[in-house]
């Protein structure tokens, strides 16, 4: 008997969602041309290591106040389930304005999590990854956002559970923050694989800036005036 499922809704992610986001992205990106093929060519031999890759990154970025995680949830037989998630980050002066005051104790959370991640990697190394490519997304964090795109909302990661794809959830996750970009009068951007290029173009990311290594491509959605 098929589970009764509600329509998807969006909300801000909570710390209790991190494992569910990692699980969602594990399935969403396992066969992706960038996160899958390029960054994790040995994932078939070590699939669980890919989950830990997602979880470590999500756990650390969640406590980076420039990042904003959004989740799409449904209710299945009375239980909430995360079926999609997006990690948006604010680049430029707008990002600096999102940071906490210097003496705020919550600033300790990210370095603590970063230390735990380094320790975790020693105990559970990412055997699925290509060591030279696994930091691809983070290593390209500054080189594209200059000039008219120096102030930008960047879609760092966006993924939808394969069982819930084709239902408009990805578009919902994108529209959440492109609306913020429009309110602030700034650009929006995404670094994606070639196979997802058409999807993001339909969402307004039509300005192609530069192809990255490994098939990645940077698309911008110009500021709305």
From TrEMBL:
One GO term in the molecular function aspect is:
acyltransferase activity, transferring groups other than amino-acyl groups
* CDD domains according to UniProt: NAT_SF (cd04301)
Q: Which Gene3D superfamilies match?
A: 3.40.630.30
Q: What is this protein called?
A: Acyl-CoA N-acyltransferase
Q: Pfam families given for it?
A: Acetyltransf_7 (PF13508)
Q: Which PANTHER family match?
A: GNAT FAMILY ACETYLTRANSFERASE, N-ACETYLTRANSFERASE DOMAIN-CONTAINING PROTEIN
Q: Which UniProt keywords apply?
A: Acyltransferase, Transferase
- List the InterPro entries: Acyl_CoA_acyltransferase, GNAT_dom, Trichothecene_AcTrans
At the highest ranks, the source species' classification is: Eukaryota, Fungi, Dikarya, Ascomycota, Pezizomycotina
Q: Which organism is it from?
A: Massariosphaeria phaeospora
> Which ranges carry the N-acetyltransferase domain?
95-224
Q: Which SUPFAM superfamilies match?
A: Acyl-CoA N-acyltransferases (Nat)
């Amino acid at each position: 008997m098929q589970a009764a499922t509600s329509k998807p809704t969006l909300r801000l992610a909570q710390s209790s969602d991190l494992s569910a986001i990692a699980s969602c992205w594990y399935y969403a990106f396992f066969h992706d041309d960038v996160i899958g093929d390029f960054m994790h060519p040995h994932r078939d031999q070590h699939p669980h290591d890919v989950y830990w890759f997602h979880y470590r990154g999500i756990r650390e970025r969640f406590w980076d106040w420039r990042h904003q995680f959004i989740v799409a949830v449904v209710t299945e037989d009375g239980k909430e389930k995360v079926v999609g998630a997006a990690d948006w980050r604010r680049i430029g002066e707008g990002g600096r304005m999102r940071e906490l005051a210097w003496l705020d104790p919550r600033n300790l959370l990210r370095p603590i999590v970063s230390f735990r991640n380094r320790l975790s990697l020693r105990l559970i190394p990412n055997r699925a990854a290509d060591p030279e490519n696994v930091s691809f997304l983070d290593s390209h964090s500054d080189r594209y956002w200059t000039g008219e795109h120096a102030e930008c909302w960047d879609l760092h990661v966006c993924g939808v559970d394969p069982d819930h794809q084709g239902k408009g959830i990805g578009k919902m996750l994108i529209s959440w923050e492109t609306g913020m970009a429009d309110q602030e009068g700034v650009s929006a951007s995404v670094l994606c694989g070639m196979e997802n290029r058409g999807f993001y173009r339909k969402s307004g990311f039509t300005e192609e800036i530069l192809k990255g290594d490994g098939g990645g491509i940077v698309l911008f959605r110009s500021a709305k005036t």
